[in-house]
Amino acid sequence: MIPVVALVVAKAPVPGLAKTRLAASVGDRCAAAIAAAALLDTLDAVAAAPVQARVVAMTGDLDAAAASDEIRSRLAAFTVVPQRGDDFAERLANAHVDAAAAAGNRRVLQIGMDTPQVSAEMIVECGTELIGTDAVLGLADDGGWWVLGVSDASMADCLREVPMSRPDTGALTLAALCAKGFHVDLVAELADVDTVDDIDAVRQMCAADSRFVRATAGVMH
Questions:
Q1: What whole-number distance in Å separates Cα of residue 109 and Cα of residue 7?
Q2: Which pTM does this prediction carry?
Q3: How far is Cα 130 from Cα 111, in angstroms, rounded to an integer?
Q4: What is the pLDDT along the chain (221 residues), one digit of tens a residue?
Q5: Each residue of 154-180: b (16+ CB within 10 Å) or e?
Q6: Taking phi first (over 0 means left), then psi (-120 to 50 degrees means alpha), and beta for anything else, what does residue 162 get?
Q7: What is the three-state SS of the chain?
Q8: How far is CA 28 from CA 6, 32, 69, in A?
């Protein structure tokens, strides 16, 4: 058992509100179905990882979401906390603190729902790495990041000053952590799913029977 809290920051995949850049190419309902598949694959990976606790920080109307019943069923294996904050950076920082409080452990490993190729083994690798350092950070191909682990949840407070969803968000997050004097170990870089152009690279790293692979089978760039 790895003494970390695995935290998934998630948004209900509501058609018209989920994956809007992807939806511009494939339509609202298809984009929401792909987002739901990515979330469920992510939850499966976290559920299979031998971590001390599993928390989902959720926002959005799950009743209106694609695959809402399946998502609700899967969330039964997690402690669910609401996201709080006025912008995404604030919600991320608060989610770390809330996850630590809910689980009784200050060491938090956080991922999003845009990297359905993440496996339980990757979570184990990142969690194990976190045990011996201040923080771990996994950069994303688009310049953002897909995983952030902190040895104390309060360290994520520096995210409040980092502009999100930009090509330099990953670099700025690394700089913000280092500016506080934290030692940051970089872990594997992954592609995440924001647009139709991202799908092939992510599909290639997913298990052949994953929900994401099935949900994107008919989506061709």
A1: 6
A2: 0.96
A3: 14
A4: 999 999 999 999 999 999 999 999 999 999 999 999 999 999 999 999 999 999 999 999 999 999 999 999 999 999 999 999 999 999 999 999 999 999 998 999 999 999 999 999 999 999 999 999 999 999 999 899 999 999 999 999 999 999 998 999 999 999 999 999 999 999 999 999 999 999 999 999 999 999 999 999 988 54
A5: ebbbbbeebebeeeebbebbbebbeee
A6: beta
A7: CEEEEEEEEEECCCCCCCCHHHHHHHCHHHHHHHHHHHHHHHHHHHHHCCEEEEEEEEECCHHHCCCHHHHHHHHCCCEEEECCCCCHHHHHHHHHHHHHHHHCCCCEEEECCCCCCCCHHHHHHHHHHHHCCCEEEEEECCCCEEEEEECCHHHHHHHHHCCCCCCCHHHHHHHHHHHCCCCEEEEEEECCCCCHHHHHHHHHHCCCCCHHHHHCCCCCC
A8: 30, 6, 19
User: For residue 173, how many C-alpha atoms fall within 13 Å in the half-sphere facing its CB?
Assistant: 32
